[in-house]
Amino acid sequence: MVGVSTAIALARRGADVVLIDRRAPGRETSFGNAGVIQREGVHPYLFPRSLSKLIAYALNRRTEAHYHLSSLPAVAPFLWRYFRASNPGSARRTYEANIPLFGGCLDAHADLAAEAGAEELIAKKGWLRVFRSDAALRAVAGELAELEGLGLSVSTPDAAALAALEPHLKTDRLAGAVHYEDPWTCSDPGALTGAYARLFERLGGETVERNVAGLGRDGDGWRVETDHGPVAAGAAVLAAGPWSKALLEPLGLNLPMGIKRGYHRHYAPAGNGYLTRTIVDDEHGFVMAPMARGVRVTSGAEFARHDAPPTPVQLDRAMPHARALFDLDEAVDDEAWMGARPVFPDMLPVMGEAPGLPGLWLNFGHGHQGFTLGPVAGRLVAAMMTGQSPDFDPVPYRAGRFS
């Protein structure tokens, strides 16, 4: 989503753009998310500091987080930086930097979806966050107040209102819910990304499917090395998501990016049941999202090497809790899908020119929010690349903040 959106923004500004991807656009990380265009998502996902939770995480007993013991030497440096950055001061800076980013996400998607002819993939009903205790519901009161202060619509429906919103949701074990009313949801994130990619081609852009082996200087410009020969250009944008760090390091730029792996699987609703909104269960670390293929159940975060074998144990742990909320039949996928989210310790992306590497631009590390922020991020980077004034201050997202 980030790469395609950046390509569109550049093409609209008159640039000659080639989009290089190892697969058709929208078949990697942007394929497997929960499909929420998360207008309210200004609060960062922080590393927990509760001792009881940390002990449970260390024992690998939680559904929302899992790690590979064999990968700990590789992922521990990022986890330590992530833990250190999850303090009130850093969280507040991330929150403030997120406000202008998320503020334009709906308009930016609306613009692309309309021109791409993909509006039927988007629903505008918000999403529901469910709680099993009054204490958990009270704990988000401050967050909800901040969202209302930003002009967003949130409500806490009572049992009757919740039943009206989602008649087939089993609410007998719930203490309550929050309805985030502004966000949009997508019934097929991969298809929406693909529709945007076709729009890019109609704008005169070229898409090529090649494996990228590296980046290098080419006179005053840049050269992308691929398995079918090089592609040269005056400037390059690195928007390779979880693969971005490995492509940067040979150029001498080592950024503290980590990876949160995640899984999903689709299930048929039982009987005549249906969901019309995405349901998020924080306590048990999963999401249920109505999709074209069925109800998509997504897992929490897994910390492991990017190339480690899949271990979808979080989905197995989540399924009894998911079925306690909504009647699900058998899986319609043969196996769970796995993807990887690129994240930085402060939960902000890197967007802007690479330090010490003129002509190489960075646009990655959007964590859980790449699907939401792709069109906004593309506009921001394209404006900077073409010498135009961006819509908001890009300083908080510079790679130099990690110097």
Automatic annotation (TrEMBL):
Coiled coil start-end? none
| Membrane-spanning intervals of the chain | none
Q: Residue ranges of the FAD dependent oxidoreductase domain? A: 1-384
GO cellular component term of the entry, any: cytoplasm
InterPro entries from the entry?
FAD-dep_OxRdtase, FAD/NAD-bd_sf
Question: What would be an example GO MF term here?
Answer: oxidoreductase activity
**Is-annotated flag, keyword Glycoprotein?**
no
Q: Write down the superkingdom of origin.
A: Bacteria
Keywords assigned: Oxidoreductase
Keyword Transmembrane recorded = no
Q: What is this protein called?
A: FAD-binding oxidoreductase
* Species of provenance: Oceaniradius stylonematis
